[in-house]
C-alpha cells in the first residue's frame, strides 16, 4: 500500500509504527524478595566463553564488583550448567550493602521459574525467594510486603531489615519493585529530583 501511495503522491511515506498491544493487569505475577546487594550476570556464549557482569559493565578479577568475577572464574565448571545466554541475579551478603549477617557472598538468580528447582540449578547458585505467585492483586502484594517486614528476610532467616519485593508481571514481562519504608526514588531520598 505504501509503495503505491508513494508513486501516486510522490511523497516518501515514513515507516509505519504499530502501537503495542496492552497487557491485561489481572494476569499472573511472581513476587520475590528484593535483595540488597549488587546486580550481577553470568553470560555464556554458544561456543562456551563465559563473562561476568555487573548491571552496567563486564567485570574481571582485575576490575571486579565485590569479587563477583573471581567467584565466576572459581565456579566456571558448575556455572556452565546454566547454558548459553545471560543469567541475571543478585550478588549479595558479606560486605555488600545490607550484608544480611551471613558470613559469605551468594549469587541468587532472578528467574525463579527456570531456576527454582534445586535439581536443575548449579549448586553454587541460589535463587531469589518466591513470596507469592498468582493473579495480580495489589492487596496481596501489600500483604506480602507487610509480612516480609514483620517476619524478616526469607533469603537470610533472622535478618530483620529486608529491602522489599520485586513483582514480575508475566504477560507484559515487566518488573516492578516496592521497598519497605521509604519507597521513593533513590535520588529523591538524597534530595535529588524524583
Could you explain how this protein is built, in words?
Helix content is 21%, strand content 28%. It has helices spanning 2-9, 68-74, 76-79, 112-115, 138-151, 186-189; strands at residues 28-34, 38-44, 50-53, 58-59, 85-93, 105-109, 126-127, 130-135, 164-169, 174-179. The chain is globular, with a radius of gyration of 21 Å. The model is unreliable at 189-194 (pLDDT under 50).
State the main characteristics.
194 residues; disordered C terminus; 21% helix; alpha+beta; D-amino Acid Aminotransferase, Chain A, domain 1; 6 helices; 4-stranded antiparallel beta sheet
How are the SSEs ordered, and which strands pair?
Layout lengths: L1 H8 L18 E7 L3 E7 L5 E4 L4 E2 L8 H7 L1 H4 L5 E9 L11 E5 L2 H4 L10 E2 L2 E6 L2 H14 L12 E6 L4 E6 L6 H4 L5
Based on secondary structure, the structural category is alpha+beta
What is the tally of beta strands? 10
So, CATH architecture?
A: 2-Layer Sandwich
Widest beta sheet: strand line-up: 4-3-2-5-6-7
What's the domain count?
A: 1
Largest sheet: 6 strands, mixed
Rg of Cα set: 21 Å
In N-to-C order, the SSE pattern is HEEEEHHEEHEEHEEH
Amino acid at each position: 500500500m505504501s509503495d503505491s501511495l508513494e508513486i501516486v503522491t510522490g511523497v516518501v511515506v515514513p515507516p509505519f509504527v504499530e502501537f503495542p498491544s496492552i497487557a491485561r493487569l489481572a494476569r499472573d505475577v511472581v513476587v520475590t524478595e528484593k535483595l540488597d546487594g549488587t546486580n550481577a550476570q553470568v553470560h555464556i556464549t554458544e561456543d562456551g566463553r563465559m563473562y561476568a557482569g555487573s548491571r552496567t559493565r563486564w567485570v574481571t578479577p582485575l576490575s571486579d564488583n565485590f569479587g563477583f568475577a573471581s567467584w565466576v572464574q572459581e565456579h566456571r565448571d558448575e556455572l556452565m550448567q546454566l547454558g548459553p545466554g545471560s543469567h541475571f541475579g543478585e550478588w549479595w551478603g558479606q560486605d555488600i550493602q545490607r550484608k544480611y549477617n551471613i558470613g559469605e557472598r551468594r549469587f541468587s538468580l532472578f528467574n525463579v521459574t527456570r531456576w527454582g528447582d534445586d535439581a536443575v540449578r548449579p549448586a553454587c547458585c541460589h535463587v531469589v525467594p518466591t513470596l507469592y505467585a498468582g493473579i495480580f492483586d495489589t492487596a496481596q502484594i501489600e500483604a506480602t510486603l507487610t509480612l516480609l517486614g514483620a517476619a524478616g528476610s526469607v533469603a537470610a532467616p533472622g535478618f530483620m531489615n529486608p529491602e522489599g519485593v520485586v513483582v514480575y508481571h508475566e504477560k507484559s514481562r515487566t518488573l516492578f519493585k516496592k521497598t519497605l519504608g521509604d519507597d521513593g526514588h533513590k535520588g529523591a531520598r538524597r534530595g535529588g529530583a524524583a
